[in-house]
Structures
1.
Amino acid sequence: MADTVKLGFAPIAAPRKGVLVVFTDEDFRFGAQTRKALGRAQALISLAGKADGFSGKSGSALELVAPEALRGLSRLIVMGVGKAADLKAADFVKLGALAMGRLPPRAEAATILADLPAGAMKPEQAADLAAGCELRAYSFDLYKTKRKEGEDKSRNVQVTVGTTEPAAARKAWASRESVVDGVKLARNLVNEPPNVLFPAEFARRATALKRLGVKVEVLDERAMKRLGMRALLGVGQGSDHESRVVVMRWDGGRRGTAPLAFIGKGVTFDTGGISIKPAQNMEDMKGDMAGAACVVGLMHALAARRAKVNAVGLIGLVENMPSGKAQRPGDIVASMSGQTIEIINTDAEGRLVLADVLHYANTRFKPQFMIDLATLTGAIIVALGHEYAGLFSNDDKLTERLVKAGEVTGERVWRLPLGPEYDKLIDSKFADMKNTGGRHGGSITAAQFLQRFVGKTPWAHLDIAGTGMGAPQTDLNKSWGSGFGVRLLDRLVADHYER
Ligand code: MN
Ligand code: ZN
């Protein structure tokens, strides 16, 4: 029942039916192509604009029943972009999303003219508009058997982007579509309920990437025991659902080149275990696998657009439940690296899962770098809210590249410190380390813990607890799961690591 958008590109012209969306700057000026398409309708638009006090401010819009001169159209939407010269790459995706959001609920066809006062948009910018439309239109209503009144049928909208270079825009769209599909896949995984998406089912869905040419291996508990992943297994031991680790490989780069490694926390439901969480909002803990969802979405994007890179994605999938078999505070486990961990709080489980998966990724693949994503700490929401993901890294170059990719995609990251003073806080009386460092600097001590499992490999940890799920709805996302990280990391790969 989900809405679907059918996207197309065509030469710039006024369509004969549906909704027409055009852009104007804050001086209420149109591009030359738009003026041509609007023709005699311009006089009426400027009258209507004056009457409404519409100026073309960024985010503003003027909505009109289509003027006589544009016969057949159901509606004309004039969208303000503010100072057109100030528009940055991320803004074009947002413009597409805003346009999509302005379409009336029953619209069946819409045409968006990719044109600004300074000239026609570039093919990449026209394709970005299309990406924004798709991201905005996403909804997750798999489990609704009824629509609200007046919404008895699912909406199919034909969206056409009018551009001076349709063929080039179509080409630019092809790779963006792969990335958008990766974002939607990640959102679907985050939004799924935890009774449906338990570790084995999550692994099954990741296995579907095989059809894109991704090599997928699934490690079951026996295989993990043999490898000595006792930190990860300890987290899952209270659950009736078996744990899994999934290894996904995309070999699109030169043979023999060390891969990039992406690692995701996939706690399909986190009750906190014996250190059980309060009931309030516990349902949100179905999203404690947003890091793993991002890694699967990213691998989808890279494979679908045939990225010229070697990349591996590894996800640790467990369910953290209290039971007679569950791990206790006070337990000491030996991680795959050989380092021992005293469990202080069974709710600090994500780092235990990542400890083994990071060590495994590092020793097996000797990657160029490792980036892990995890809904790791509530403390990161206290520090950064829902706007930035927390970034921790042992490598300045990788950090700089991630920050830049964040600015370009709008999936922003903010670096927080690491250091020996913080590292001391996780020393344990009885084992090599303990799994919490206390309330103060909680996101930092969690990152310090992870750092003990990455060796000298360049590494970055993204704490996405505030951005991966339950984030406030944005222009690009009206759903609960955001798919945060897919566009960020795809961009990082595209800008620096493809041959
Ligand atoms: Mn937890
Ligand atoms: Zn967790």
2.
Amino acid sequence: MSKPIYVLSGPNLNLLGVREPQIYGKETLDDVRKACERRAETLGRTIEFRQSNHEGVLIDWVQEARTAASALVINPAGYGHTSIALLDALKTLEVPVVECHLSNPAARETFRRHTYVSLAATGVVSGFGVASYELAVEAAARLSA
Ligand code: DQA
């Protein structure tokens, strides 16, 4: 049995469904979790799904993933644009890293066009709403055993 795919979400994503639904959609984070679990199950894999508003907590989970995960999916949310510390943590991983975003940051404000996390990502899935997470889980599963 493979190790789980860690699926981490950053700040404000706990408010999915009520936060700017015209951008992020009406589905809640629990809907996202269920969609990821279903997709993982069809691929014969499991996930460890977590969200935090705290940079240090996310970094602790990335460090945990070094030994506990087969791959990592991360929606770093706002920290993607600001956190060198999160980038440094991700760079310590030897497993595949898939960055995902519900929206397409490249088509939004200019400050969203740069994402530190992308420097440590094997690939990025953006702009497909909840499906971004599902596709990211699928990519992570394909890239790992
Ligand atoms: C986001 C995009 C980020 O720019 C933003 O700060 C978020 C969510 C997304 O999923 O589209 O919080 O990562």
3.
Amino acid sequence: MTTMFDLTGKSAIVTGANTGIGQAIALALAAAGADIACVGRTPAVETVAQIAALGRRAINIAADLATIAPVGDIVDQTIEKLGGLHILVNNAGIIRRADAVDFTEADWDAVIDTNLKSVFFLCQAVGRHMIAQGHGKIINIASMLTFQGGIRVPSYTASKSGIGGLTKLLANEWAAKGVNVNAIAPGYIATNNTAALQADENRNRSILERIPAGRWGAASDLGGAAVFLASSASDYVQGHILAVDGGWLAR
Ligand code: NAP
């Protein structure tokens, strides 16, 4: 690996690292040399073991990001146990599906609180630390619905469109302070989050027909973009939303 992608000596927080995209990104960052704090409500037992097998340090930090209560503790524990904090990946997220006319306030609030409110306040807490140290890398996980409207997922679309705006706002405020804030917009990736779509024969077929790459993405397809945005290779990349979508947006 060339040194510009080397993450040796860096510590990263990855939220939702027990499964899916968060797990794949945690493993990719560790393979590039980083130590990882896996943050979530379900312990990332398998992820921590796999990172240890790579010869890197990994810890679990228990946190339910449905509220912002755990934010301060996440930052404190990471710095205390890993000796620093250089990378934040805001990956934890949920989705609720219903027709817009039937959509409930509970489904609105749950998704906005987890996918947008907690992301902002974790960025804020980590950003304060990164600004003080003069460098840092923040990667928010966006979506195709950062660019498109979607259907039957109003709070999810609002949250992921919000992630796009928030990523640019934070980049504007923090770029000159040495903190890069960018986002990755995954296309259709085979995880728990998309299990309902994969199981729906018609939706599955119409999605596949539109993907130029001709296949659903695997969570591991996100690893390269994450390492790029976490490393010095992206030092002059600010407020960018990097689609990793098999060409979906090009159609
Ligand atoms: P996933 O397999 O369902 O994983 C979601 C992760 O978020 C899990 O680790 C989950 O933990 C965690 N999480 C959810 N609510 C949480 C809470 N209140 N507190 C702490 N952690 C919480 O889905 P995924 O596909 O990997 O999704 C990861 C991210 O990618 C999400 O932001 C999603 O919106 C985004 N994304 C996914 C796709 C796709 O095609 N899959 C496309 C675009 C964007 P638990 O296991 O404990 O629930």
